[in-house]
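Aim 2 progress update. The chain analyzed this quarter is reproduced below.
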Amino acid sequence: MHAATETITPPKPLLRGVSHEIAAGVALAAGVGLVLSATSPRGRVAALVYGASLFTLFAVSALYHRPTWSPRARLAMRRLDHSAIFVLIAGTYTPLCLLLGGARGATMLAIAWGGALLGVGRAVLWPTAPKALAAAIYVALGWVVLPVLPALRALLGAGDLAVLAAGGIVYSLGAVVYASRRPDPFPRVFGYHEVFHAMVIVAAALHFVVGARAVLALG
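Predicted structure tokens:
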């Protein structure tokens, strides 16, 4: 008589969530500084929304990945974690859309937050969606900015536009790592998910440069 085969869950990498825990503290300080640097109501709103979304993404990610949750609690935290990604995408768009202004800026803002709302709905109602599908949705919403890139170039300059594009590319490559689970350099310490988290930090830092410039341009 053979013993029943048990499903063994691989141990969580030692550094899972550590980088985002550190990034949450940096994001909080950067967000506060950005709000204090704004001098106009529109600038303050842009800074507050963007800064809050950035901090939320890293704080929720750290809270999800650092502790060892029960299966039920883990599923609830996954809903929050995946929702926070959509909130950050829309939050990153906010300073840029306010800087664009007019009907074009308002339309882009509505698309960004409308898409984020749909994404949050997916995260809440279908938290176990395939990684490839989830990654594709993140990337699609992240690149809806393409039609207004020429207008942003006129407002921010070619250099900032290049930084914005670089951040988008790093985010997109990170989504590929997330979906494919490769590379997975040191599974017990620093695995594919840690690579993904590191790429999110790099991309967020690049976008913060542009977001801060947009806030300062708003006054």
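Residues 98 and 201 are 24 Å apart (CA to CA). Helices lie at 18-37, 41-65, 71-100, 102-125, 131-142, 149-156, 158-180, 192-218. These observations will guide the mutagenesis experiments scheduled for the next reporting period.
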